[in-house]
Amino acid sequence: MKRLNPEVTQRIATVCLWAAAGLALSVLAYIIILVLAKGLPVLTPHFLLASPERMGRAGGIFPTIVGSLALTLVALVVATPLGVGTAVYLTEYTQPGRLAAVIRFGVDCLAGVPSIIFGLFGFIFFVIRLGMGWSVLSGGLTLAVMILPTIIRTAEEAIRAVPGSYREASFSAGATSWQTITRVVLPAALPGVVTGIVLAIGRSIGETAAVIFTAGTALRLPTSLFASSRTMAVHFYILAREGLSMPRAYGTAAVLIILILLINTAANALMVRFRARTQ
Amino acid sequence: MPEAQLPKLRARNLNLYYKAFHALSDVTLDILPQTITAIIGPSGCGKSTLLRTFNRMNDLVPGARVEGEVTLDGEDIFAPTMSLVRLRRRVGMVFQRPNPFPLSVRDNVLFGPRAHGITPRDRLQEILEASLKGAGLWADVRDRLDEPALDLSIGAQQQLCIARLLAVEPEVILLDEPCSALDPYSTLHIEELMRQLSETYTVLIVTHNMQQAARASDRSVFMLLGELVEEGPTEQVFTMPRDERTEQYITGRFG
């Protein structure tokens, strides 16, 4: 068989890579355009700021926006210190060995568990066993467990990528391990850690299966951590599934997507400012 | 003998293993204060390992094991009562590649003092200025103190690392091939700086540049395969080596 001319191979490869990237991006663009096209017509200040009426057939979605943000916030407040702490432990305090490998394997398994299983776990453990009921707290904690692997692994990679020479410099200036971690390693790893947190926000704010059994589906504005609350994703699911109002379902989805875009943009801007300050 | 001639660092029958690899064998050596001691030898002879033993930087290497004794002013550095933080404050290190933190010039120099809990603003300013002057960098960076350290030239970055070290007021300065990433002009600069530093500090430098050892050190240590072959005044080691292997190495017959 005659071998292909390397330049021809190169051209074919370029075309294939372009096609792959183009296809992936156009699917993404199509989804966003579809949701926005169907959702934007119902997007009014009233839709954003009013409470739902008649099970969501009319009125707005304000309580579900608050619910989504509250659950995500609880999840982050719990999972960020735990996750970053675990990552620091894995990278700075363990020698590469069996214990670290076991923890890492466990984390990877956890990352592959479908979210409905987390929902079931949260229902059995937080809602029933710990008696928290359907609440912002139960839902937030369930999400925290779900996003923990993402935060641990991204933070771990980011910390591992910090040059060893920074640690050596810090130690040779007589800093302790703790000072080295908090003043040198974590600031240097921050962009990567924040990327993980942003991914985690994306996962939790759009999550449905894990929260429908744990935060419940109440349409009232949640006023405490122990109140049941419906998130935007759950609201969308119920509106669409029960055939209550497809335009309002798409409106909810559009708000959700715009919110995620805003959060990602804000996180990016924050990182750019942080880098400008340190480098 | 005057008191100043008491050895600052003293190694006795020092052996170091990386797992099964015997990296230092039976090293016995005195390092005099206010002197520049150069450690020379071919790659892999254990010269950096020896240097990194003096501030226990090898502790960071998994599987490293030490036998024998090293004392700093007569105090055993491997004693359980020896605090690593205190040891490394007294014995500071400059590395092969300049490794400033991705922070401003100021924050780099003040990293050590802040880590040791010094907070008064004017005291920090004094340290900043004194350390940068000590490293010969003050005139160049006095107007750029808040600029990123990584924007400095590579030679200036190495000087900054020296300033960062001076800021913690060490007694011994370990330099691990500090000029190997620098151009000849910056190298000369660092060598002049070493000469000034040796008036106050005990300076140890690992180098595989023999001209550097010959022109910039007071005493030289020649190592081969983890063994200390010869130690003495630099002039004697380079002109009348006692050991045949030293002579072969410095005349360029191997290495």
Main attributes of the structure:
heterodimer, A: 279 residues, mainly alpha, two-stranded antiparallel ribbon, 11 helices, B: 255 residues, alpha/beta, six-stranded mixed β-sheet, four-stranded antiparallel β-sheet, 10 strands, 35% helix, globular
Distance between the termini of chain A: 54 Å
> How many distinct domains of chain B?
1
Overall pLDDT confidence of chain B: 91
Q: Multimeric state of these chains?
A: heterodimer
Secondary-structure element series of chain B: EEEHEEHEHHHHHEHEHEEHH
Number of domains of chain A: 2
In order across it, which strands form the biggest sheet of chain A? 1-2
CATH topology of chain B, by name, is Rossmann fold
> How helical, in percent, are the residues of chain A?
over 70%
The helix/strand class of chain B is alpha/beta
- Rg from Cα of chain A: 23 Å
CATH topology of the largest domain in chain A: MetI-like fold
The overall strand count of chain B is 10
Low-confidence stretches of chain A: none
Q: What structural category characterises the helix and strand content of chain A?
A: mainly alpha
Named CATH architecture of chain B: 3-Layer(aba) Sandwich
